[in-house]
Amino acid sequence: MEEKSDTLVNLNEDLHFLDDQQHFIWASEKDGYKYLYLHKNNGELKRQLTKGNWVVDKIEAIDQKTH
């Protein structure tokens, strides 16, 4: 996976590999706020997990039953 920006890419520690060993969750500010995204291990975006006029501060828990 690669993330680019003309201005700034904020580095973070919000990378979480799921137990299925096929997906991971990554936090990014590419849409203006720090949101969470579910990706396949090959980097392909599966879907955006959070959205709104707020940022994700931290991940408290991950429900791995549905994704």
Automatic annotation (TrEMBL):
Q: Per UniProt, what is one Pfam family of this protein?
A: DPPIV_N
Against SUPFAM superfamilies, the record matches this protein to:
DPP6 N-terminal domain-like
Domain of life here?
Bacteria
Q: Matching InterPro entries, A to Z?
A: Peptidase_S9B_N (IPR002469)
Q: Could you mention a single GO BP entry for this protein? A: proteolysis
Instruction: Give every Dipeptidylpeptidase IV N-terminal domain span.
Output: 2-66
Q: What's this protein's name?
A: Peptidase S9B, dipeptidylpeptidase IV-like protein
Upper lineage? Bacteria, Pseudomonadati, Pseudomonadota, Gammaproteobacteria, Alteromonadales
